[in-house]
Amino acid sequence: MTIRESLVHIIFSYLATIGFAVTLNIPRKALNVCGLIGVLGWMTYKVFYLWHSGMVLASLVAALVIGIFSFIAAKVKQMPMVLFNVPSLVPLVPGGQAYRAVYYFAFKDDEMALRYLVEAAMIAGALALGFFLAELLTQFYYKFSQSHKV
Amino acid sequence: MQAKKHTLTVEKGELLLETTLLAGKIMIENGADMARVDDTLKRIAQNSEITTPEIFETTTGIMMSIPGHNAQVKAIARRQIDLERIAMVNEISRAYQAKQVDLTQMHEYLKNLDKSAPDFKLIWLILGAGTVGATLEIMYGGSWSDLLPTFLISALGYYVFYAINTRFKVKFASEFLAALVIGLCALFAVKFRLGQDYGMIIIGSVMPLVPGVPLTNAVRDLLAGHILSGSARVVEALLTAVALGMGIACVLRFWKLGGL
Q1: A83 to B245: CB separation less than 8 angstroms, yes or no
Q2: What tens digit of pLDDT does each residue of A16-43 get?
Q3: A19–B132: do the CB atoms touch at under 8 Å?
Q4: Sign of the torsion formed by the C-alpha atoms of A36, B93, B57 and B236
């Protein structure tokens, strides 16, 4: 990626996250942090994707990053985590794959359609797994911080 | 061993049940995950010196009982997404924990919050949806000349979704019709040479309608052991996705059939 392309991706992922956050009616003081987490998630995805890790692994790592930073933001801002991780996730949703699956189903090319459907399902699963890992890490954090308090 | 005597009077117990259930109703109605609802409701009860509240919540209703009182049920008929209200319930529950407000004040606050019309400023929602569509179209590798058509079509699609959702009570019809409108507009835009690639325009324009909240919450619910709510949300997200896909598929199919 050239510097110009990277800048476009950073600015646009920020705008996309904030745009989706507005449609979910997120409190104004959470908007900026939301956008920053969205940029982090999307750039993580892009970097891993350009390292030829494949879409699925890149999505997993990006979801993990979003989950961890959303947890930190929720802790610092004392707000529910759902405010931060839902808008940030939007650029990673496999909309392109889902569209192509629908496209090929509509034109009776079932083989291609199933290929894209499986790809979309795998990316969605990877996003879920990324959140799962982030959740596990936060649980560990709670255990760790509690055992040190006592 | 004799059970520890609870200190709440009947009136206070009723008020506590009502307040807690109302808080839960607002949170679930507006898209909170069950672990958070559970946590918040238990906190409210525990801050009122009830150590063993029993709360059972699903996406369509909550049941709660505290020792020495009749259990109460609250049904949840509608679901929408308004994350600001979840944050507001969160804040008032924190204020209650810090003893800045008492139970009666919290009950009043929640009642007003529940009754108040959602302060959706439609123009902002539409602008937000347009921004999502246009920016994602570029991020997914679309051309710059499709930026403006995608912005307009995704804004229009979101408006259709919003208008149908607020007027009719049929779930998933709004997604389907919005997808129809988006598909038709994208194909016409390309036909009249206002856009280049209808595929990229459609992908971008559909993105503001993806079921992000049910999907994210489904994962968290399933992991937290709320199997019932989790699977309900998986189904909700799948149905939304299928409605969107059906809309697009219909347009593509009839477009080909019509030979346009």
Answers
A1: no
A2: 999 999 998 888 888 999 999 999 999 9
A3: yes
A4: negative
DSSP state of A108: T
Instruction: Tell the residue number behind the tokens 């009570």, with chain if given.
Output: B169
Measured between beta carbons, the chain B residues lying within 8 angstroms of A8 are 138
Which segments of B20-66 are extended strands (E)?
Answer: 54-58, 61-65
What is the residue-wise DSSP string for A11-73?
HHHHHHHHHHHHHTT--HHHHHHHHHHHHHHHHHHHHHHHTT--HHHHHHHHHHHHHHHHHHH
The two three-digit tokens of residue B150, written as one number = 């995608």
Segments of chain B assigned E as strands:
54-58, 61-65, 72-75
For residue B242, the chain A residues in CB contact (below 8 A) are none
- Please report, in tens digits, the pLDDT of each residue of chain B (260 residues total): 444 445 567 788 888 889 999 999 999 988 888 888 988 998 888 888 888 888 998 888 999 988 888 888 999 887 788 888 888 998 899 999 888 888 888 999 988 888 876 666 889 999 999 999 999 999 998 899 999 999 999 999 999 999 998 888 777 899 999 999 999 999 999 999 888 889 999 999 999 998 888 888 888 888 888 898 899 889 989 999 999 999 999 999 888 887 66
The answer to whether residue B19 neighbours chain A at the CB level (below 8 Å) is no
> Is A102 within 8 Å of B245 when comparing Cβ atoms?
yes
d(CA B115, CA B209): 26
| Contact assessment for residue B6 and residue B67, using Cβ atoms and an 8 Å cutoff | yes
- pTM of the full structure: 0.88
Sequence-ordered strand ranges (E) for B5-114: 54-58, 61-65, 72-75
Strand ranges, E, within B203-258: none
Contacts of A34 in chain B (CB under 8 A): none
